[in-house]
Write a structure and sequence with these properties.
The chain is of the alpha/beta class and 386 residues long. It has one domain: Alpha-Beta Barrel (TIM Barrel), CATH 3.20.20. An 8-stranded parallel barrel has the order 6-7-8-9-10-11-12-13, surrounded by 5 helices. Helix 8 packs parallel to helix 10. The radius of gyration is 20 Å and the shape is globular. The mean pLDDT is 93.
Length: 386
């Protein structure tokens, strides 16, 4: 399988969102009657779109607003919210810096140590509003932060790194034992990120409750440029979904797949579900919400890395409220608002009654899908050509 790229070397052809399209079936459904909910270890959510654990996207206020709308927002336990008692001052500084100073300033802001008392405090602030508290940590800090989060009543714990595997080799520190960690946690554990069938299957074997899929597709991420690593999201999602289905057939345990990154508009999100996702994680689309803490700016989780930053600060602007972005009414015609409306309408048009049926949608390779017949939009830079 694959094409020759040189003598004795083959490369597999992989696909991203812009290269495929969804094909309607023989039945259509009233969009108001489709079921968009997803479930993780007995917890059910009506909105299958998670807000990414990025400091320009999620703080406690945003997490509360997202929870009240039926979704999940993940708070970064290695970020500004747990390093500073008053994160607003830091966020103001980051928003006001010039592009030339961005990386250096962000790096300096993240040298402040994480304060463990703030971990519990932030979780309690979210829980006090009566919504789920969901937080994330890198693998090296997961055991310590997981214990603190569990004591504070966390509902879901996310372990996230650029690339996460079930087997990690290190002589400098003790690698996280996912099997042991999952047994220690009362809350569901989501682990990421991965992009291959084998990687996903081995992580599922450790007992994780859901997987994040995606390396480098995020709007503020530069991993693909810095490291050259990544698999386009349609292929990555389909491969990991195949591992999920194989695992379920063998052990009757269903491990949801969450496509993480690379989705800017409703159409991308619809394609992620058709590729096999059970839910999606979005950053830049939510960074544009009035409730987002980034003041119209968005930066990647690896931007503050002290030696090798793999993210940048981008200006996304503020387009409307979180409710507008999720449920409308949309005032922009580019698909950046009313993401749930787009998903429901697509499901109805495709004849998918729920997310599982959406995953069975016929996919076609369609490189002209965004340009065919769009001459005036392209020339005028409106609509799909923005």
């Amino acid at each position: 399988m694959g094409m020759w790229v040189g003598r004795g070397r083959k490369a597999r052809r992989c696909y991203g969102f812009d290269e495929i399209a969804l094909v309607p079936g023989t039945v259509t459904i009233n969009p108001a009657e489709v079921d968009t909910s997803w479930e993780i270890k007995g917890l059910k959510f009506k909105v299958p779109i998670l807000a990414a654990a990025m400091d320009g996207v999620v703080d406690t206020k945003f997490a509360i607003a997202m929870g009240r709308l039926g979704g999940i927002a993940v708070l970064n336990l290695e970020g500004i919210q747990t390093r500073y008692e008053n994160p607003e001052e830091v966020l103001d500084k980051i928003a006001k810096t010039s592009p030339e100073e961005d990386t250096e300033l962000i790096q300096s802001m993240y040298t402040e140590p994480v304060k463990e008392n703030l971990i519990g405090k932030r979780i309690e602030e979210i829980k006090a509003a009566g919504v789920p508290a969901v937080v994330s940590s890198i693998p090296q800090k997961a055991e310590r932060f997981g214990a603190i989060a569990q004591e504070a009543g966390v509902d879901i714990f996310v372990v996230q790194a650029t690339v996460t595997t079930a087997k990690h080799i290190s002589t400098e520190y003790e690698p996280l034992n996912f099997q042991k960690f999952c047994k220690q946690m009362n809350a569901p554990v989501i682990v990421g990120n991965c992009v291959t069938y084998e990687q996903a299957l081995e992580l599922m074997e450790t007992g994780v409750d859901a997987l994040l899929v995606g390396i480098g597709p995020g709007a503020a991420c530069t991993t693909r440029g810095v490291l050259g690593i990544g698999v386009p999201q349609v292929t990555a999602t389909a491969d990991c979904a195949a591992a999920r289905d194989s695992f379920y057939k063998r052990l009757r345990k269903y491990v949801p797949i969450i496509t993480d990154g690379g989705m800017n508009v409703g159409g991308d999100i619809c394609k992620a579900f058709a590729s096999g996702a059970d839910a999606v994680m979005v950053g830049s689309a939510f960074a544009r919400a009035e409730e987002a803490p980034g003041r119209g700016y968005h930066w990647g989780m690896a931007t503050p890395h002290v030696n090798l930053p793999r993210g940048t600060k981008i200006h996304v602007g503020t387009s409307g409220t979180l409710e507008q972005i999720l449920f409308g009414p949309a005032v922009h015609d580019d698909g950046s608002q009313n993401l749930m409306g787009a998903l429901q309408t697509a499901m109805g048009s495709l004849g998918a009654r729920d997310i599982r049926e959406m995953q069975l949608t016929e996919l076609i390779i369609a490189p002209a899908i965004k340009t065919e017949g769009k001459l005036f939009q392209t020339y005028q830079k409106v609509g799909m050509a923005r």
